[in-house]
Amino acid sequence: MDEQPRLMHSHTGVGMAGHPGLPQHMQEGTGGTDGDGRKQDIGDILQQIMTITDQSLDEAQARKHALNCHRMKPALFNVLCEIKEKTVLSIRGAQEEEPPDPQLMRLDNMLLAEGVSGPEKGGGSAAAAAAAAASGGAGADNSAEHSDYRAKLSQIRQIYHTELEKYEQACNEFTTHVMNLLREQSRTRPISPKEIERMVSIIHRKFSSIQMQLKQSTCEAVMILRSRFLDARRKRRNFNKQATEILNEYFYSHLSNPYPSEEAKEELAKKCAITVAQVSNWFGNKRIRYKKNIGKFQEEANMYAARTAVNAANASSHGSQANSPSTPNSAGETGMLSGCYRKLLLFFFFFFSFV
DNA sequence: GGAGATGATTGAAG
DNA sequence: CTTCAATCATCTCC
């Protein structure tokens, strides 16, 4: 029977003696020396434990209150807190400092770049802006496409934000609820603030995984929209004849160095009603295609060279009209030509044709 | 429908 | 950053 002293010890150690909420016989038992009396006490306690589930809620509350008011309770509670703190810290050691999820970062970056998350950029996205620049001067149908794109993107944005708000609200509500529960429970069992913090972070992690799904689907929607839009952008239009003539004229009149400066590009872009990027593209394509097959472009080169020569001659004779050297109106121009210039044109044409 | 022309895109190089 | 070179996707002409 060496269990008996231990039980007794534990009984006194836990310190229920003098507790106002405990039955008198239990309090007496702590200081008692009578073996039978002690046995009786233990029997009573066991009986109480066994019947505790049968007690009414009010009775249980009374016992809870009694326990809370016990004089040894704070000391015991602190000890338990310390033990718990150590345990929790050792558990946390392995879990903490986890790096941010790269996939989530990617999704966040993409949503930000597309203008879905973050501040609204007037509905404009990188794709819309790029396409707007690339399609330059293409006209009303393109701006209609852009507005369509913007409208759809804004729709996605709205849904995303509504859902995100819902998730955040639900997360906050749930977190508050759990925290209240834990605070309430912390009065009867040791729950450290760190433990609450950990619980909150667990909840946040769970909700952020739900949020990630939302972000994933939003990204997919944007990608689909964007790919459709970019496909539409690929439906290019050839530049109009006048624009091509302006570009060709510049190209062949600068054949020794067909690299227009930024200013020249801007001017050409303005004249052709296209973007500077399109001018750059055009010159890039032209240079490479010309170089690849000079023979094929010879006739074209001769024609533009002749035209340039005529323009130059024209400019010298009509000094005041020289401010538009690169875009002659062929029909009008020919009509204005004197016999002398017509001869000159023919000379240049044939000269360059046989060179 | 096919061939060639043409504007745009992409990746490498400087 | 610009330019080159290759390539793609579409347009235009026959």
Would you write up a description of this structure?
- With about 350 residues, this protein is mainly alpha-helical.
- Among the domains are: about 110 residues, no CATH class; about 70 residues, Arc Repressor Mutant, subunit A (Orthogonal Bundle), CATH 1.10.10.60.
- It is about 75% helix and about 0% strand.
- The protein has 15 helices and no strands.
- Helix 6 packs across helix 9.
- The protein is rod-shaped, with a radius of gyration of 44 Å.
- About 15% of the residues are buried.
- The N terminus is likely disordered.
- It binds a DNA duplex (14 and 14 nucleotides) through helix 12.
Average of pLDDT: 70
End-to-end Cα distance: 125 Å
Given as residue ranges, the uncertain stretches (5+ residues, pLDDT < 50) are 1-32, 122-127, 130-141, 320-346
* Helical coverage, percent range: over 70%
Tell me the structural class. Answer: mainly alpha
Cα radius of gyration in angstroms: 44 Å
GO molecular function: DNA-binding transcription factor activity, RNA polymerase II-specific; sequence-specific DNA binding
Keywords: Activator, Developmental protein, Differentiation, DNA-binding, Homeobox, Nucleus, Transcription, Transcription regulation
Organism: Mastacembelus armatus (zig-zag eel)
Family: Belongs to the TALE/PBX homeobox family.
